[in-house]
């Protein structure tokens, strides 16, 4: 048994290529299925934030807990 890739025979090279191809397909498939898909598609919608109650800031050193 030879452990060098340079002196390996043709079937060994073919096995390495097939294993790498299958691994690449599995990684790409996992990446596609793990992609966060939403019902909105690629359209962007504006999110509206409404202002709350007005807050008055004073210079006193006391703190107010509500």
Outline the secondary-structure elements.
Blueprint: H1 10-33
Word description of this protein:
The chain starts with 9 loop residues before the first helix and ends in a 33-residue tail after the last helix. The protein is 36% helix and 0% strand. The protein has 66 residues and is mostly helical. The radius of gyration is 30 Å and the shape is elongated. The longest helix has 24 residues, at 10-33.
| Beta-strand residue fraction | under 5%
Our Rg estimate from Cα atoms comes to 30 Å
Write down how many β-strands occur, each being a DSSP E stretch of 2 or more residues.
0
- Which word captures the global form? elongated
- Tell me the series of helices and strands, N- to C-terminal: H
The quaternary state of the protein chains shown equals: single chain
Q: Taking all residues together, what is the mean pLDDT?
A: 79
Query: Biggest β-sheet, characterized?
Result: none
Tally of helical runs: 1
Q: Compute the separation of the termini in Å.
A: 77 Å
**Low-confidence stretches at least 5 residues in length (pLDDT < 50)?**
none
Residue share in helix: 25-40%
Q: Which structural class best describes the helix and strand composition?
A: mainly alpha
Keywords: Membrane, Transmembrane, Transmembrane helix
Transmembrane segments: 12-32
